[in-house]
Description:
Blueprint (H helix, E strand, L loop, with lengths): L1 H13 L2 H10 L3 H9 L4 H28 L2 H13 L11 H26 L7 H15 L1
Helix pairs in contact: 1-4, 2-4, 4-6
Amino acid sequence: EFETKLNEGAEKGAKLAFPIFKSAITGMTFQDAKGILLGQQDAATQYFQTRTETQLYNAFSPKIKTSLDQVKATEIWYEITSRYNKLPLVKKVETDIVKYATHKALDGLFLKVSDEESKIRSTIASRKTDLLKKVFDFADRQRQK
């Protein structure tokens, strides 16, 4: 039940991601776009992570908290981890399960973004729109120079 509620919270938060990503795209400067196109293999992922992570955290966190509170996971996790952290010679763990779970959800989201970026950069068939085809064909030609 804990895992189900954790996943539900992350899914509810993920639904709020679209407008945040859209805002990052519409706020992109020419220099940002050029840096993404001609930059490192994960330049788009880095751009989105830098521009959206705080907003995404703020969107995901309440949804995850609500889901975890339903199964009393926040209380139980805090109690267990607080006791654990008092043990000598152990590596301390995060006592705030909402913070931990939210960061893990964002890690998963940006892993998906990174995977998609990698496909678009490396596989012409993944460039599904005319705009992606034109833009990345240009980037490919620039790299060959």
